[in-house]
Amino acid sequence: MSIKYAILGILSYNSFTGYELKKIIRDSSFMYWSGNNNQIYKSLIELLDGRLVTSEVRYQESSPSKKIYTITEKGLDELKKWILSSPEPPEFKKTFLIQLAWADQLSTDELNTLLSQYEDEIKMQIILQQEMRRRQAFFPNRTPREGFIWDMIYQNIISSYENELEWIKRLRTELFCNHNEEEINTMNYAVVKRKDKKYIECASAKTPIHNEQNALDLIAACIEHDTNLLMIHMEALDDDFFRLRTGLAGDILQKFINYHIKVTIVITDSQKVKGKLREFLSESNRGDNFRAFNNKNEAENWLLDL
């Protein structure tokens, strides 16, 4: 994709500075191009020379002046002409497939590690794309049709990653006869519905939650079921969670906060909470993102704002 058409498209929505254009394109899931950030400014110069955009310097009393770019009628005509050109077929340039093509020389453990790493990367991308869609930092919605088109663009990207995830799961399952899907996914959770709200409840895990990836799996479950509410029972947590020196509790809870997941932990065994962990939980219980309770009813009431 030529970067100038992305610029023209963005400017057809609103006038922006070069910095704002760079940020919109950088944060986009689909307005990618090969090159560095200077290409945006080079393209803006070309668009100015071609009278496809205009620029205006706006002076500010308390801040540096800034140059605002606006699309012209000629620029709109050029953009429409490009939109009406024959669409290109989707590109399938996946470096991982080249790695996989020669992966038979790896041992079983090495191959399983490679596939696990790729699966984790795909899960992370799904979470990121879901979050970008939710935030809608740049989301033209001037008409219902335009809003629908942009929403479907995000769905296209997310579904591509979801299809990739299903493919990699099938690959791993069929490659390793001594593994099955149940062993690969050890998180046991349920979707609990209360009136007009719902949350994810993780009561146990075949392999207790012991790293940030496990936290991401639960975040993915929340996104999949369209909720940001999560309840975890102490039985699903690794013992290291209750040893503050390991840093596991802080790392996992920070992950939930980063993805705006409201989480509560039900700790029915008071012997698990002592020393610095007690202080840590007491401090955390003052916030709105995470709290620990000693029974499920209190945890659920807080989680659902009852």
UniProtKB/TrEMBL annotation:
Indicate the segments forming the Transcription regulator PadR C-terminal domain, all copies: 93-175
Q: Which domain of life is it from?
A: Bacteria
The UniProt record lists the Transcription regulator PadR N-terminal domain at 7-80
Matches recorded under Gene3D superfamilies: Winged helix-like DNA-binding domain superfamily/Winged helix DNA-binding domain
Entry-linked SUPFAM superfamilies: Winged helix' DNA-binding domain
Using the record's annotation, list all stretches that form the DUF4180 domain.
195-303
A Pfam short name: DUF4180
Q: Which InterPro entries match?
A: DUF4180, Tscrpt_reg_PadR_C, Tscrpt_reg_PadR_N, WH-like_DNA-bd_sf, WH_DNA-bd_sf
Q: Which PANTHER family match?
A: NEGATIVE TRANSCRIPTION REGULATOR PADR (PTHR43252:SF6), TRANSCRIPTIONAL REGULATOR YQJI (PTHR43252)
Q: What is this protein called?
A: DUF4180 domain-containing protein
